[in-house]
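Backbone-to-sequence.
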């Protein structure tokens, strides 16, 4: 039996180590090559994506934005300066005694006027010049209708004049003349009927503070001065009201006071009412 030499065994072991080292070096080289190719691929793809995004932005700037601005410009011109969305009709709401033609003629709304350029304040001012109109609201009803919501004045008294009988509302505004005194309304007797007249305001304050059943008994409201209001009632009775101060308290004590027999009921001082 032969014994292998130590030299030969050592050579074989060194050769095995060298072979393993070369294989490890080859694997490391392959890994570096693959990482390099992967990084180059990602760089290429990133550049392609970046280039694609830049191209899309250029395309939008070149076509989309100008097209959008053109559409907006055309729509603005159509809405503001053409009758495309213009007034086609006028609708009157709330008027009972006023004729619709009178309202629309006074409003003076031109057909075809662009709805967005409608002069609502001007229309309101013109309609308020009608004495019978207490308030008015102008509304746009798209696409082409203008609504005029009218609140008419309600008469609560009448005043005798040389021209006839003037109807007066709760604010003391005379707004219409009629040939005969309206049935059921009391007469207002003051020096000058006007909303800013102190005697007119005192008389209307006294009258409107009364309850509806008690107001129905009033035949006349007389105010020779703002602090000297007198209510004339049915059956020849009279209420000395005085000034408009504490009108609510006076109106509260008057109904039980009227249950007592008498002709003159004095509530000028509501703490000390008298009957005579």
């Amino acid at each position: 039996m032969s014994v292998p030499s130590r030299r030969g065994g050592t050579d074989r072991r060194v050769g095995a180590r060298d072979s393993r080292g070369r294989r490890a070096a080859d694997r490391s080289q392959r890994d570096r090559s693959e990482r390099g190719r992967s990084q180059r691929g990602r760089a290429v793809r990133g550049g392609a994506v970046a280039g694609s995004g830049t191209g899309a932005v250029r395309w939008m700037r070149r076509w989309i934005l100008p097209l959008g601005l053109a559409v907006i410009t055309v729509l603005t011109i159509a809405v503001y300066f053409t009758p495309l969305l213009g007034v086609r009709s006028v609708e009157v709401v709330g008027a009972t005694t006023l004729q619709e033609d009178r309202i629309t003629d006074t409003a003076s709304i031109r057909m075809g006027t662009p709805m967005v350029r409608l002069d609502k304040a001007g229309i309101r001012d013109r309609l308020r010049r009608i004495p019978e109109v207490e308030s008015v609201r102008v509304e746009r009803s798209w696409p082409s209708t203008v609504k005029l919501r009218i609140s008419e004045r309600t008469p609560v008294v009448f005043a005798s004049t040389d021209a006839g009988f003037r109807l007066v509302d709760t604010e003391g505004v005379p707004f219409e003349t009629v040939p005969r005194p309206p049935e059921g309304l009391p007469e207002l007797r003051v020096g000058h009927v006007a909303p800013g007249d102190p005697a007119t305001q005192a008389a209307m304050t006294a009258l409107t503070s009364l309850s509806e059943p008690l107001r129905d008994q009033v035949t006349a409201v007389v105010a020779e001065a703002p602090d000297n209001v007198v209510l004339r009632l049915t059956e020849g009775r009279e209420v000395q009201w005085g000034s408009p101060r504490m009108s609510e308290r006076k109106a509260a004590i008057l109904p039980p006071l009227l249950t007592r027999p008498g002709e003159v009921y004095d509530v000028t001082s509501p703490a000390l009412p008298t009957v005579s």
